[in-house]
Fold this sequence. Notes:
Blueprint: H1 8-19, E1 26-30, H2 37-49, H3 62-68, E2 75-79, H4 87-97, E3 107-112, H5 119-130, E4 136-141, H6 150-153, E5 157-160, H7 166-173, H8 179-183, H9 192-200, H10 204-208, H11 210-218, H12 224-227, H13 236-254, H14 266-292, H15 300-308
Parallel strand pairs: 1-4, 1-5, 2-3, 3-4
The chain binds zinc ion.
Zinc ion binds at residues 50-52, 57-58, 61, 63-64.
Amino acid sequence: MMLAEWLKPCLQQVQTLKKGNALSHALLITGADGVGQESLAHEMVKDLMCESDQGIACGVCHSCELMNAETHPDYRVLDGENGTIKVDQVRSLVQKISQKPQVGKSKITLITHAEEMNVNAANALLKALEEPAENTFFILTTSQSKSLLPTIRSRCLLVSIPTPSLSDVQAWLSQLPEHSELQNLFWLTTQPFRLLSLQQQGKVSLYADLPSKLVELLQGRMSVSDVLKGVDTSNIEDYTNGLGAILHQCILHSAGGNLESALQEVYPILISRISIQGLMVRYTALQQLKEDLQKTNLNPIMQLTYELNQW
Ligand SMILES: [Zn+2]
């Protein structure tokens, strides 16, 4: 997949610094949620790992070959996507990165969702950033740079990804398979990499079907249990998110905002059934339900069934 247009200037910035031998040992890639921090980071790692002196990865040196085969021993990733990054994980990486590289010149550690580092982990990283070994790089990604220790932020070269315009997002999506389905989900999100991730997780139709199912429900042609067919603990958060996003968009529209075409049919039916005031009440209730999903003593599907019975 091609690097997104809005990520290219960020990549070039780092390539120029690499070529001029002026690159900082630590890079912090920031930007709004879902603009492509990780995608950019992976491209950067390839360039930095390359043994040539040029800015862009040559593609033919031993390091480039190993990177393309995803087996480079001097490149490590710590992913905070699924929860807290702990001090032992950081320490072990720091210990490995302080050894001699096994293959080329550089060693790189990528820490994604770096805001997930707890205080001890962050302090362990800070220590490593303060005494950088030669040819070692730490690349951090986050969408919440304010949650990082200021002392870590100040040690990093900041690479700030701009938020792409809707037409940039559309152009980028158009190279994906079944992209028209994704463009129909703009009521849910316009974050390009969130849409990509939904596609990779096979969740596009779950969301895309929600507005029409809701129409059927509100018009009495479908029961709540029909609408919730296939809901289980692995995807109930998606249903709750989707329903919440529909309500949110309808509330915005009632205040004069645009309405995505996928919601044209459901909006007037919702308004006539539960009124604008009701939209807000239901939206608040759904947000509460979303919080409650974390509590193990509740039956979430029963909760969602109860909620939809109020619509
Ligand atoms: Zn190379």
